[in-house]
UniProtKB/TrEMBL annotation:
InterPro entries: Acyl_CoA_acyltransferase, Bact_Acetyltransf, GNAT_dom
Protein's name according to its UniProt entry: GNAT family N-acetyltransferase
Organism phylogeny: Bacteria, Thermotogati, Deinococcota, Deinococci, Deinococcales
Species of provenance: Deinococcus ficus
Cross-referenced PANTHER family: AMINOALKYLPHOSPHONATE N-ACETYLTRANSFERASE-RELATED-RELATED, GCN5-RELATED N-ACETYLTRANSFERASE
KW NAD (keyword) present: no
Cross-referenced SUPFAM superfamilies: Acyl-CoA N-acyltransferases (Nat) (SSF55729)
Chain segments annotated as transmembrane: none
Length: 329
């Protein structure tokens, strides 16, 4: 049957989610999440770009591709690409056809750098990117903690001068504007200091509101270490899984520079485990760059075990001499 590549629409998202789930069951996605993500890009005041395609054969969606710009790594000439083909349709020209559509689109837009990723245990996907000129720039590793197979850790102990508070309670105590500004300051500082191959664009106040309104955000899992003056010394995040109610994901864990090296991150991660156990959570997943030695050590102490790495690739490059395009008030 003839293969047809066309622009994707919202009506395609259920089929696209099924394709993505079949291609990588470890990273579940739903039609709702696809729609939320697309709307987030399209509504951004940074003027971010998004374009998506599906490949059809005999009326069946057999592949998906997309290019997008991300607020957290924004430069007007940098794009992130994904091409997904489920195993039952692999090596039948689907990926090649989608790659052609992506390449033509990015060339027309004058893209200077394209990012993509492939799991290390999917050699065909790795070879697909390398064969098109992409080169590896970093590796991120999922770590999993199975709670019922691991003894409960010691309770969280923060340094003197800090107290543990969930973000919703912090907002009540400080007022929404002050609380979210304190959260944003440490959030942006932690992201800026994470090992990464793309400079972190700081989140604006509006983007933090949008970030916390995500349907997978778990408010009681947004845990903060705060000072008596209302400053956020550290934070960790728990997020819901789109498909498995008994699984949670760790988002950002970070400490303000003045409080580093004092056990704040470890105490916060321990507190997050207590929240997860109280919810009846079976597994917690977290992801870290392989060069993030301090956080890898924290996770190892808590019993997290590594999974196959997600390899980050780059085609072209926006060098450090380029001024990063950021947006702030």
């Amino acid at each position: 049957m003839t293969l047809h590549v066309r622009d994707a629409t919202r009506a395609d998202y259920p089929a696209v989610a099924a394709v993505m789930q079949a291609a990588d069951p470890r990273r579940p996605v739903t039609a709702e999440l696809l729609e939320v993500s697309a709307q987030k890009v399209r509504s951004s005041p940074r003027g971010l770009h998004l374009h998506q395609w599906v490949a059809e054969r005999g009326g069946e969606v057999v592949g998906f591709a997309g290019v997008a710009q991300w607020a957290g790594a924004h430069h007007p000439d940098r794009y992130h690409a994904v091409i997904t083909v489920p195993p039952g349709h692999a090596r039948r020209g689907v990926g090649t056809a989608l790659a052609g559509a992506v390449r033509a689109h990015l060339e027309a837009r004058g893209a200077r750098e394209v990012r993509a990723a492939a799991a290390e245990d999917q050699p065909h996907a790795v070879a697909f990117l390398i064969g098109r000129g992409f080169r590896e720039v970093s590796r991120e590793v999922d770590h999993v903690l199975t709670l019922d197979a691991h003894p409960e850790p010691d309770r969280a102990r923060l340094p003197d001068g800090l107290r543990l508070v969930a973000l919703p309670d912090f907002i009540v105590a400080q007022g929404r504007t002050a609380a979210l500004e304190a959260f944003r300051a440490t959030f942006n500082a932690a992201r800026a200091d994470e090992p990464r191959t793309v400079p972190a664009a700081p989140y604006t106040a509006e983007e933090i509101e949008e970030y916390l309104a995500h349907p997978l955000c778990l408010p009681e899992g947004m845990l903060l270490a705060v000072t008596g003056a209302g400053e956020v010394a550290g934070l960790t995040e728990l997020w819901l899984d789109p498909a498995e109610p008994a699984r949670l994901h760790t988002g950002l864990t970070g400490t303000a520079r003045a409080w580093r090296g004092r056990g704040v991150a470890t105490a916060l991660k321990r507190a997050a485990l207590e929240v997860a156990r109280a919810r009846g959570t079976r597994e917690i997943w977290t992801q870290n760059d392989l060069t993030n030695a301090p956080m890898l050590a924290v996770n190892a102490r808590l019993g997290f075990r590594p999974q196959p790495a997600l390899i980050q690739f780059r085609l072209g490059e926006i060098g450090p001499a380029d001024v990063e395009a950021t947006y702030d008030e």
